[in-house]
Structure formats: C-alpha cells, structure tokens
From TrEMBL:
PROSITE patterns: ADH_SHORT (PS00061). This is NAD(P)-dependent dehydrogenase (Short-subunit alcohol dehydrogenase family). NCBIfam families: PRK07231.1. It comes from the Bacteria. The lineage of its organism: Bacteria, Bacillati, Actinomycetota, Actinomycetes, Pseudonocardiales.
Length: 257
C-alpha cells in the first residue's frame, strides 16, 4: 500500500494554478499521467509546461484540456481527451470552485448563487458521472473533492460558497455509499490557503490572519496536495466517504477566525 501512481491516469480540474496545480504536481511526482483543466487556454498551457519543467516528467504524461467546468460539453470533452491520450482514468480530483458572492445571503444575487452551486457542486457530480461511465464502473478508481472548512462551519462572509461546499461534502458521502466498493470517494476541507483565489482573505494582513491558527501560518497548495495524493492512493484503500480537514488546526479552536 503506497502512494505510487505509476501506470495510472488522473484528471485534476481547475489546475492552471493554486491548489489544483499543486495536486497535479504531486500526482505526477508519484508516477501518474495527469490531465488538467481550466477556462483560460493560454494559462492552462503555461501551467502544463511548468508541470513538465518542475517535475521533470515526460511531456506526454501531461495533458491540458481547456474548458469550463460548468459546461456539460466541456466536461465530456475533458474526459474523452483523457481516455484518448491515456486510455484510462483512475483518479478524479474535483478542484474547480468559484466564489463571486460575499456577505449576507439575504442580499445575495440568486443568479450568482445558482452559478456557485452549478460549478462547485453540479459540475463535480457531472465529472464523476462521466468518469464512472468511461472507466471507473468497470475498473475502479478514486475521487477526491476539494471542499472547504467553510462547508463545515458558518462564516457569514463567504456564506454562499460555504453552503455549496457543505453540499459537496454531502455529495461525497452519498457517492461513497453508492459507488463502493469499486470507487472510493473522499473530500478534503482546507482553511485559507495562500493562492490567488483566496487573496481577499489575507492580502495585507497575512500575519493577523495566521494568528488564529494553532500552526501560526496559512496553508500552501502543497499541504493540500499531499493529503489528496494519500486519499487517492492505495494507502487509503479502506477510507471512503470521509471529509478530512487540512486547516492548520483552525477548527480545533472553535472558530473560523
């Protein structure tokens, strides 16, 4: 039981930067062939090139598939591309997430909230359905959904995002029950990770933001990536339906800061 992914193929959504990029690098380092998705083709191509450079893997082990996770056609195109290039799909990491709404839900634009749920929840389920039909139903595999501590405890600030991540956590449990024993489905729930996506939560006040964490620092993409790789690997072969916090101890304090 190891985190060796040699001979396996993975799809990581939303991987042009940040947590998704870190996860892709970790899986490549473990021996996997990895496809990454993202909305902006140029940024995604640059990310794929960077993965080859930083990990030293052969370029034929990295595939960039531009597309919008919220589009059923783009999701299908991504899975088809993985199957065409690698002939298999053993690991799916649903990392794509958006958060265009801050503040009280009673004032939230419902179209924006609907979009959050469409991308953060419905798209994740859509990718699972496609991966199941393309490979995992017959051969098995592992799914890891990127949730958030905001899905475990109310924040008041990123409330719509947190509600969508709570839904993703429940989706993870339902899928783990329904797709076992062939497919394991788990989630990870990060606190604030130093990425462009989370900049609004710490820019100009990082020391203050980190002070509430027992570990006295914010997270990095690598912190999340190592946990994702473990959950996707054979080393976690009896773990499914779990949401594992990677939060520097934040929730242990009884607050979200």
């Amino acid at each position: 039981m190891t985190t060796d992914f040699t001979g396996r193929a993975a799809l990581v959504t939303g991987a042009s930067r940040g947590i998704g990029h870190g996860i892709a690098a970790e899986l490549l380092a473990g021996g996997a062939s990895v496809a990454i998705t993202g909305r902006k083709a140029e940024a995604l191509a640059a990310a794929a090139e960077a993965l080859v450079t930083t990990t030293g893997v052969s370029p034929d082990r990295v595939l960039a598939v531009p597309g919008n996770a919220g589009s059923a056609e783009d999701r299908a195109r991504a899975v088809d591309a993985v199957m065409t290039r690698f002939g298999r799909l053993d690991v799916l990491v649903n990392n794509t997430g958006i958060n265009p709404v801050f503040g009280a839900l009673v004032d939230a634009d419902l179209d924006a909230v609907r979009k959050i749920f469409d991308v953060n929840v419905i798209a994740a389920l859509g990718f699972v359905q496609l991966a199941w039909k393309a490979w995992m139903e017959e051969h098995g595999g592992a799914v890891v959904n990127i949730a958030s501590v905001g899905g475990l405890r109310s924040t008041g600030v990123i409330a719509a995002y947190g509600a969508s991540k709570a839904a993703l956590i429940r989706l993870t449990e339902e899928l783990a029950w329904q797709l076992g024993p062939k497919v394991r489905v788990n989630a990870v729930a990060p606190a604030v990770v130093k990425t462009r996506f989370a900049e609004a939560l710490y820019t100009g006040r990082e020391e203050e933001a980190a002070a509430g964490y027992p570990m006295k620092r914010l997270g990095t993409p690598e912190d999340v990536a190592r946990l994702v790789a473990f959950l996707a690997s054979d080393a976690a072969e009896w773990i499914t339906g779990e949401t594992v916090r990677v939060d520097g101890g934040l929730l242990a304090t009884g607050t979200l800061g």
